[in-house]
Amino acid sequence: MGDDHMRVGVEAAAAATVNDHSSSVDHRKEVDIYPLSCYYFGSKEAIVFKDETLSDRINRMKSNYAAYGLRTSVEAVILVELFKHPHLLLLQVRNSIFKLPGGRLRPGESDVDGLRRKLSRKLSASEDGNETEWEVGECLGMWWRHDFETLLYPYLPPSVKKPKECIKLFLVRLPESRKFIVPKNLKLLAVPLTQIHENHKTYGPIISGVPQLLSKFSINIIDT
Amino acid sequence: MGDDHMRVGVEAAAAATVNDHSSSVDHRKEVDIYPLSCYYFGSKEAIVFKDETLSDRINRMKSNYAAYGLRTSVEAVILVELFKHPHLLLLQVRNSIFKLPGGRLRPGESDVDGLRRKLSRKLSASEDGNETEWEVGECLGMWWRHDFETLLYPYLPPSVKKPKECIKLFLVRLPESRKFIVPKNLKLLAVPLTQIHENHKTYGPIISGVPQLLSKFSINIIDT
After folding, report:
1. pTM of the entire structure?
2. What ipTM describes this predicted complex?
């Protein structure tokens, strides 16, 4: 999976599978969501986080960039239904930071493989073997860090020849049931889209823009 | 074009045409943009706007809703290149309000037909006959007005059974050359995405979110 050509192939195959579920041309404009009560939630051993200052983090990004080039992260937009409204699954770290589930790709790893690996690590019981159960759908948006010390933007100006980080958001459709097993030091939350929209202060620019990125889809609440 | 089935047909046909231009599976993730200097800009007679107060407007929306139901507007996201950066075409009304080109559908009119008609009215020389020259692409997002007096949101809560207005944004790809003929009382502007992003105060929530909606596309600047 180490080259661009293969990556496109993998994504195309995933798209074909999605379309096979329905004869409708517009299938990919729809998202079926299931009640939160369809899912089981458990916990597993804590994940070790690097406890570091902002300047440590910048130094780590710099040395990683020197070694591997552009840092690419992939994050999942996963929806469930609660009170008849779509809720976004978010992970909360240390009662403060909210994150979409996902993380950094390994060098040469494809977006889809990397996102499946990260979702299994943060949301499933076993780290290996069940990664393909995550149905990674279309890319919803991309955010770029133009330089180590700057914020993320949803565009790349021509003056930025060597961006330092790219974060890609993918829609991940859930099946009708699933066990979520979350590391003890993370909290998995379901937050209504109404609360997230334009709420930069609490959720940051990427998460608070997710309701807009989803707005072109028709979201079907499935009664089970 | 008065029923849903036909509308889906028209959109599917448009999508097929777009895909025929290239054998790449990922074609629809790309947008080719051309320098502003490729285009000719002229003016034509002013369009008459309804000069009304906010309460006049709400009353007009109410009586239109009673007669025709949900008001649906379609708006175009059109890009050109300037200083090697993508610029969004906006119409400015009375030196203050910025708008995406587009407008309200007639009862029973399809999204694509209505957007072509509105683009011809606001951006082309003749009102009829050349409407099909607008290549209306994918829907990027939708905004809903839940009630006459409320703002627009990119989602529809379950409590809102009868939304009053829906605004749909479509990507419209320009050809390599085009004459834009704009009513005298409107100004056509090309605004860089960098200036629009999160600039709610100047551009409002819909336009200021457009850079995010475009972020999943790879934008190719075509040298001519």
Report:
1. 0.85
2. 0.83
